[in-house]
From TrEMBL:
SUPFAM superfamilies per UniProt: SGNH hydrolase (SSF52266)
GO molecular function, one term: sialate O-acetylesterase activity
Name by which UniProt lists this protein: Sialate O-acetylesterase
Record GO biological process: carbohydrate metabolic process
Family matches, as PANTHER family: SIALATE O-ACETYLESTERASE
Key words of the record: Hydrolase, Signal
InterPro entries linked: SASA (IPR005181), SGNH_hydro_sf (IPR036514), SIAE (IPR039329)
Pfam families: SASA
Annotated organism of origin: Pseudozobellia thermophila
Signal peptide: 1-21
């Protein structure tokens, strides 16, 4: 029995040594992938220490020689061309060779957040016009990489998953928001698009931030450690960053789109800080300040009064502290009885238009709804000035959802009229107004839009 045990132990060790002598790659570097165009991108993997590896990039037939260091992890920077493909990349070592085929060069975006980003055409409640959208989802140059759910106590060097071509079969289970975002980019830019979906329904922002965020911010750490277990998502701080994000950080991306916040409404007071720190931690991990575009949560019947609108306001204010960010407002497509609005087309379109204008300079239209800029008390009235206010209009007979307050802080409904792309508000109950707020309710579906047909964000002037 002892001899048999030793034999199998030696066999295991011998097999392990053979396995570790071979080149292995992370899952995100695989057949059918999209690499970021016109960049110095990293290729990396693992091999036996001292292993000499030759890498050949098919778009320029350039050879790269590298020797695996003592860590057994190797990496090399290669230059990518303008968008195109398909190409091959080969990795040849002493004992094996890996050839990746059908590699495209284009634009790569990470698509993250909670259930509204995760929501697909095949989810039980579906999306608007779901059957037709699935049927027409034949885009060979759009590629999907879905990261299966996995948590981790420590940052992981690899994430599970594989690249797939966009077809009706693959699209129906992929993030609908991400798909509509990618389709718009693909059609407008006419280049390959890679979409990496690692969203997890019900997840709070705390699980997506790196450990350093909490080490450096005791207030955020206290909040994170106080999270209660839920049936939808893990709540351990950094657990989804460790399991679903860190292994992607060597992979060059164009940017991130994000749809999350519903699970943080009860902790809205520090969301702006937490969100900004989380975005900063991702950028630090990747090593550059990529664009970060996000969706303001939609009106919904939350349990506690005003907690949803406080979170929406925190997201609006985060624009001021997160460089290279953008936010889309979706109050006009809300379903206040359903936290998952089925109109994912407009969400993806608005995110894509942000990217096309800000990241690619390929869209001339307005991409933002009216955003509160300033207020000025003029006698018994308040003038409200907005950014992105050209063509300011009310959809309906009169403008709704404005309130004013005096020095006592008590708000009353206000009459609101549009004049020269400003909103003038007043109330008989408040002869000496001090502050103004708009759409200040969990379920408010206001009717203030700009000429581009984009809705105004909720705000308070306090």
């Amino acid at each position: 029995m002892k001899v048999k045990y030793c034999f199998f132990s030696l066999l295991f060790l011998f097999s392990f040594q053979i396995a570790t002598a071979e080149i292995t790659l992370p899952n995100v570097l695989s057949e059918g992938m999209v690499l970021q165009r016109n960049q110095s991108v990293k290729l990396w993997g693992w091999a036996d220490t001292g292993e000499e590896i030759t890498i050949v990039t098919g778009w320029d037939d350039k050879h790269y020689q590298i020797k695996t260091p003592i860590t057994a992890k190797w990496e090399v920077e290669v230059s990518t061309p303008e968008a195109g493909g398909p190409y091959t990349i080969s990795f040849k070592g002493r004992d094996n060779e890996i050839v990746l085929g059908d590699v495209l060069i284009g634009e790569v975006w990470v698509c993250s957040g909670q259930s509204n980003m995760q929501w697909s055409a095949s989810t039980s409640t579906g999306i608007v016009n779901g059957e037709e959208e699935v049927k027409n989802a034949n885009y060979p140059n759009i590629r999907f990489f879905s990261v299966p759910r996995r948590t981790a106590e420590y940052p992981q060097e690899n994430v599970p998953g594989s690249w797939e071509v966009c077809t009706p079969e693959t699209m129906k289970d992929f993030s609908a928001v991400a798909y509509f975002f990618g389709r718009r980019l693909h059609e407008q830019l006419n280049i390959p698009i890679g979409l990496i979906d690692n969203a997890w329904g019900g997840s709070p922002a705390e699980v997506w931030a790196t450990k350093s965020v909490f080490d450096q911010n005791p207030d955020l750490k206290e909040d994170a450690l106080g999270l209660k277990e839920t049936p939808w998502s893990p709540v351990a701080p950094s657990s989804l960053y460790n399991g679903l994000v860190h292994g992607l950080t060597p992979f060059k991306i164009a940017g991130v789109i994000w749809y999350q916040g519903e699970s943080n409404v009860s902790r809205h007071a520090r969301y702006k800080k937490l969100f900004a720190e989380m975005v900063g931690s991702w950028r630090n991990a990747w090593g550059y300040d990529f664009p970060f575009y996000y969706v303001q949560i939609a009106p919904y019947k939350y349990k506690n009064p005003e907690e949803g609108v406080y979170l929406r306001n925190a997201q609006r204010e985060a624009l001021k502290v997160i460089p290279r960010s953008g936010m889309v407002v979706v109050s006009d497509i809300a379903t206040v009885d359903n936290i998952h609005p089925p109109n994912k087309q407009d969400v993806g379109l608005r995110l894509a238009n942000l990217a096309l204008k800000k990241a690619y300079n390929s869209y001339d239209g307005e991409v933002n709804g009216p955003l509160f800029k300033a207020h000025k008390v003029v006698g018994k009235k308040i003038e409200v000035v907005f950014d992105h206010a050209e063509g300011l209009m009310a959809k309906g007979k009169k403008l709704t959802h404005f309130e004013v307050a005096g020095a006592d802080g008590k708000y009353y409904p206000a009459k609101a009229v549009i004049k020269n792309d400003k909103v003038i508000v007043s109330s008989k109950e408040v002869p000496l107004p001090v502050n103004v707020r708009f759409a200040w309710d969990n379920v408010a579906e206001p009717n203030l839009f700009n000429g581009a047909g984009l809705p105004a964000s909720a705000f308070t002037s306090e």
